[in-house]
Amino acid sequence: MRKIFLIYLLFNLSFFYGQDLNCEITIDARQTGQENLQIFKSLENQLNEFINNNSWTGRSVRPNEKINCAMFLNISSMDNDSFNGTLQIQASRPVYNSSYYSPVYNFNDKNFNFRYQEYQNLNFNPNQFENNLISIIAFHIYMILGIDADSFSLNGGTDYFEVAREILDYSQNQGYKGWASSDGLQSRYFLIDNILSPTYKEYREVMYSYHLRGLDKMADEPKMSKTILIEQMNALNIMHRRRPNSFLMRVFFDTKSEEIFEIFKDGPKVSTSNLISILNRISPNNSEKWRNIN
Predict the structure, then answer these.
(1) Which of 11, 65, 99, 148 is the most buried (most CB within 10 A)?
(2) What is the pLDDT of residues 157-166, one digit of tens each?
(3) Which residue ranges make up each domain of the chain?
(4) How far is it, in rounded angstroms, from Cα 247 to Cα 27?
């Protein structure tokens, strides 16, 4: 059934009119020493149109349902039509009964190398490699869609993650870094591999319970919501005991550490001694934050 859905999704995107994302692309080319070249503004405009004017899910989306996200492309060098840089991706989802948007994805893709000629057509083909620029952008779009769906429904993002893995599969043999297991433990390869691996199943379970059972109840029952969030840190601790210092744990706390600190530093009091101990164990890089939780 999932394979049928994927085929339907991939072959019918162009027949739907609801755009899924409200995404802002920003390009910084100062490191090239040629930041005023028109090609950078052209690329920025084209990427904004490409991402925001396409339907990536094949369903009708109302304006208030669009996912808020941002991509910051830092170009470090260029040689004719060849560009090197990094891509920082962030996405958030609304919290029920509040004006707050909770970060759900914060990833720094350090292997962003691509070719681009000004005004070239940017087209996503779900069945084959077009160019590395399109593959990387589309990969992260489906990561955003998958993580957002997981935050509203338990394992609800699986079909989107499968599309991301399809993109990885057909991009692996093109000679660009980030797609292969040999490209380091913090690559696109290990990101999607870990997300879909049963070894790290708690990550996706936590993304659901943390948001839908925790944050979305915060306005009405803040103390109970905090208790649920503590339970989710316990779940991550189980994952940590199975796979210490995992990549997904870092991804989670790169996204959530500031939010967790803000939630527990004030408001209705709950017992935090065990929470602080767990946080120091599973995310020691943020120990300074945890030290200031009351």
Answers:
(1) 148
(2) 999 999 999 9
(3) 2-196, 200-291
(4) 27
